[in-house]
Design a protein that fits this description.
The chain has 287 residues and is mainly β. Helices cover 0% and strands 46% of the residues. The chain has no helices and 24 strands. It is globular and about 45 Å long.
């Protein structure tokens, strides 16, 4: 498998790809610019402002979508990228903490990761967002990739630990039973975003390492795909259209300055990656 460039280098810090069959194509964020992007069927890209930060996005159950801003959620009731956004309440008051990646649980609960602006150790957390409040699942330094397997368990990355962890999940207790799943400290860079395959394998983007790697259901590394830029950030499966059966991978030129590769900040595709686990939609309301 080979990573192929899909777009121009449009992002300073591309992150958080996601796909829904109600969208024109995959969406992703230019996180620190606060922008949301959508790939069109003709290969062009639509872009809109979503907030001071745009950390992640998911489709909304029944229509619309949600995006995480620095410390609040914003949501629409229509699927179009330009649909009006409604802002929810601020979820925490500490201005030094910002949203960073997340996903939705099988019951539609939004799970949001955070980090300190300067990546101070232990200052971030992973939380379940319920209305205008949050329930902290665990502390973190750089809360990153999170995804659900077909069996209902979840995989999680706190990047500085250089491993992938696993949680149990149920609709009453949420995420519980966190334990290490696979040590990825052998790989250059740090583990960032992840995507779970339909067979329970996990694809991980390695920021600073220039690769996307797959770990099979048994935790063994069984594929390494070089990306022609140093800072791939996150991956997502596409389930329909010309990109069906592929992974899209976001990339970053953040902090590289003149050392950034020409394609840093572009969206890439890895054809033939297979089928992804189901994408869960957000079921919440803004209050």
């Amino acid at each position: 498998m080979k990573a192929e460039q899909l777009t121009a280098p449009l992002c300073e810090h591309g992150e958080g790809p996601a796909w829904s069959d109600r969208w024109a194509g995959p969406r992703w964020v230019d996180m620190l610019a606060g922008d949301l992007l959508e790939l069109q069927p003709d290969g062009s890209v639509r872009r809109r402002r979503a907030g001071d930060v745009a950390a992640m996005t998911r489709p909304r159950r029944g229509g619309g979508w949600v995006v995480a801003d620095r410390a609040r959620l914003r949501a629409t009731t229509a699927d179009d990228l330009e649909a009006p956004l409604q802002a929810g309440p601020e979820l925490w008051a500490d201005a030094s903490i910002r949203s960073n990646e997340g996903t939705c649980a099988p019951d539609g609960t939004l799970l949001l990761g955070t980090m300190d602006n300067d990546a101070a150790e232990g200052r971030g957390f992973l939380a379940a967002v319920e209305g205008d409040s949050i329930h902290t699942v665990c502390p973190a330094t750089i809360s990153n990739g999170l995804g659900f397997a077909p069996d209902g368990s979840a995989f999680y990355i706190d990047s500085t630990l250089r491993r992938v962890d696993r949680f149990d999940w149920d609709p009453v207790h949420g995420l519980t039973g966190r334990r290490p799943w696979v040590d990825v400290s052998h790989a250059p860079g740090i583990p960032d975003g992840l995507a779970v395959a339909a067979d329970g394998g996990v694809w991980v983007a390695f920021f600073g390492g220039g690769t996307v790697r797959r770990y099979g259901p048994d935790g063994r590394e069984d594929a390494v795909v070089p990306v022609p830029v140093l800072q791939p950030t996150a991956v997502a499966f596409v389930g329909a259209g010309e990109l069906a059966g592929s992974l899209v991978a976001t990339t970053s030129r953040y902090a590289l300055g003149s050392a950034a590769e020409k394609s840093a900040g572009a969206l890439f595709v890895i054809p033939g990656a297979g089928e992804g686990a189901p994408v869960h939609e957000w079921s919440g309301e803004l209050r």
